[in-house]
Design goal:
Elements (H helix, E strand, L loop, with lengths): L1 H13 L2 H13 L3 H14 L12
Amino acid sequence: MEREAASGIAAQKARAPEAWLEDIRRLKAQGRAEDAAKELAEFRKRYPDFELPADLAP
C-alpha cells in the first residue's frame, strides 16, 4: 500500500501543469466537482504562481 501511495505522489510530481489541469477539467466534466476542487487545491499548492485558465479560476 505504501508503494502505491509513493508511486501516486511521484506521478503527480512528474505531471506537467497543463496535463494536471486537463485532468481537473475531466473530473469536472464527469460531475466529480468535489474531486476536481481537491485536485485544484493541490495544484495551487504545487504551482502557486501558475496563472489558472479562466474556466478553472475561482
